[in-house]
Amino acid sequence: MAHWVNAKDGGFDTRKDWSTRRVPVYNAKHKDDAILDAVGGAYTVTVTKSENVASLQTASNATLAFADKSGAIFTVNKGTGAGANAGTIKIRSESALAFEGGTINNTGLISLEAKTGVAVFNAKGDVTLQGGGAVVMGDNLLNVIEDGFSGTTGTLTNVDNTISGAGAIGIGPSSGGTLTVINGAAGVIEATGANNALLVSTPGVTMVNDGLLLATGAAGLTIAGTVVDGSGGGEIRAGKGSIVRLSDADIVGGTLATNGTGTILVSGQSAFDGQASAIHNQAKVSIADGAVLGVRGAIDNSGTISLRGDNAGSSIGLAGDLTLTGGGVVSLGDYDLNSISGHAATDTLTNVDNTITGDGVLGMGQLTLVNQAAGTILETGTRELIINTGAGSITNAGLIEATGIGGLALQGPVTNTGVIENAGPGTIEIDTPIANKGSLVVDGGTLVAFGDVTGNGSATIRNGTLKFAGAFNQNVRFTSQSGILELAQSQSYTRTVTGIAIHGGGDILDLDDIAFVGDSQANYVDNGSRTGGVLTVSDGTHIANIKLSGDYTAFTFGSISDGHGGVDVFYKETAVAAPPPAATSRLVAAMAGFGAGAGGPAHVAADARFARPVMLAVPRMAMA
Q: Is the overall model pTM greater than 0.85, yes or no?
């Protein structure tokens, strides 16, 4: 063992300042520990050239400092040996502190202070960092913690230290090997740089994070080209005013979180893998334009995942089945090329209780969608939300709703035990057959089912148009005076219509398969108790018998042409005219045209489809 004998400044290679009267060395003949433990005031030992020792130990009053631009590599073979770094080690520009292995019991400070050249902390073998101390990397990109040698596979295990600052961990200007980083449960890696980010990149190996990866500086934390396994309880957090960038990064398990204005930005082809261990997202996550986020397994999302594409588009791609829980939000934004899709039609997205919102594409012909009872799919934008599952299916036990002007298209076999509702001015188009055991609701705009509707569900018209272009035989309820029920196959309709407006005359039955022949072609017969009856509409060849619930004995029913070969039937206060409704332009046109020679309203045609974007490739998932 070699002890520094006097508590005063000196050069490391000054022989007389060592108890052995020679400079500590590690070779075949000598295996010296370098111990800076002189008793007295604070002092600094300066390194000016390369050294090689068995272990390095410092007392709390000692500082080991590299001379700036010394070019020195200080090699330590066995960490801090039986002692500790209770003092300070300063690694400056163009110098390196290299540990061949062992345990660094750091209760003090290791400081990387690069200015014009790299300051390097090398973990060349299996190195364990413990003692609850600090490793501080100044606000400079040239501060590096790495392996440092080609062909080597060093491992740095941070048990409980706080590694903070800016620069790079894993790869750097001199890196040629592969550094594996293990951040223990009490370990913290914190990006504090105001001007320069902290880069964590360990390509080809998995970083284990059981502790905390934290961004608090304005420049943030970048995790690039790296698989981060947080399944042991690890967390990645962006603090207020900071950012965590995930660039071609795969996150396996663990927790994502943000504070205040902090955000997590996904770019390139990154992935959230909750297959073996759920990912808990409590963060505001943004997927950049052109980025693809691959997902699978379980995501407990109590935060927000937002697609921010506005040019090339951004996407979430399922690489297997995905289950969303946590009551959070997944936002498509308001852009046609933003999408959530699978790699195959069998890839299943189960939305337990999240709100999937916005306009874009959900499915792209490659998805099975299950929206459970507490799940919500909400169209809100100016474009259109297209749910296209291709050979997959759409199962809804929750709420699928459109509130924006863009509207919603369902393209894929639909089974509905929940609610499908248009509450906006746009159109919902159900392009495929639907097994409806729940409720179809229109409260503005148009809801049209082009395929056959089966099942024992029901429909509600609060406002707007509800159109069935195929077979339909379920109860319908009007709740206002401004609704339209359009039936393409009214002759086979045997269920009951309730709530046609009384004393308002605003609701219309549009029967596509009955021609208009005159105002008196609709005839209502009460059941004798004024609780309902049958409305018969005939053109002399075709007859529809519509069962009504309610008292319609006070007035009569009138009819006009619907403008596309059918007839509009309405309940009117007198036999002469009905007051014009104000809720829909189609209704206004119909009532304004009532009378001799009236041409009737124009048919509300389905909106033209948006061009479907091509399928985006699902990113590679760097997992077993």
A: yes
Per-residue pLDDT tens over the stretch 103-157:
999 999 999 999 999 999 999 999 999 999 999 999 999 999 998 665 667 999 9
Of 16-25, 251-260, 347-356, 555-564, the poorest mean pLDDT is in 555-564
Strand partners, 399: 376, 419
Q: Which residues of 426-447 are buried (b: 16+ CB within 10 A; e: fewer)?
A: bbbbbbbbbbbbbbbbbbbbbb
What is the maximal distance between C-alpha atoms in the chain? Answer: 122
- Cα dihedral 49, 52, 54, 56, rounded to 10, equals 20
- The 10s digit of each residue's pLDDT in 443-498 is 999 999 999 999 999 999 999 999 999 999 999 999 988 899 999 999 999 999 99
Map tokens 């998805």 to a residue.
367
CA dihedral 329, 334, 337, 343 (to 10 degrees): 20
Percent of the chain residues topping a pLDDT of 90 = 86
Dihedrals phi, psi of 397, to nearest 5 degrees: -110, -5
C-alpha 197, offset from chain centre: 24
Which residues are 254's β-sheet partners? 279
> Phi and psi of 299, rounded to 5°?
-120, 115
Tell me the β-bridge partners of 368.
Answer: 348
Say which DSSP state 589 is in.
H
Give CA–CA dist 102/75, Å, rounded.
12
Contact of 480 with 600, CB cutoff 8 Å? no
* Cβ partners under 8 Å of residue 446, min gap 6: 422, 426, 427, 428, 464, 465, 466, 467, 604, 606
Instruction: Mention every residue, 6+ apart, whose C-beta is less than 8 A from residue 175.
Output: 144, 146, 147, 148
Cβ atoms within 10 Å of 197's Cβ, excluding its own: 23
What residues contact residue 449 under an 8 Å CB cut-off, 6+ apart?
Answer: 430, 434, 440, 467, 468, 469, 470, 472
Retrieve residue 624's tokens. 């077993």
The Cα 575–Cα 578 span in angstroms is 8
Query: Token pair for residue 81?
Result: 């040996």
Closest CA to 316 of 333, 326, 325, 300: 333
Supply 86's token pair. 């209770």
Rounded to whole angstroms, the Cα distance separating 533 from 215 reads 70
C-alpha atoms less than 13 angstroms from C-alpha of 438 in its C-beta half-sphere: 19
- Judge residue 574's burial from the number of C-beta atoms within 10 Å of its C-beta, 0-12 exposed, 13-18 middle, 19 or more buried: exposed
| Residue ranges per structural domain of the chain | 478-592
Give the pLDDT of residue 555.
85
Return the sign of the alpha-carbon dihedral for residues 368, 372, 375, 380: positive
Model confidence pLDDT, tens digit, residues 429-447 = 999 999 999 999 999 999 9
Place of tokens 């790495």: 146
Burial class (CB in 10 A: 0-12, 13-18, 19+), 160: middle
Helix (H) or strand (E) holding 591: helix 585-592
According to DSSP, residue 18 is labeled B
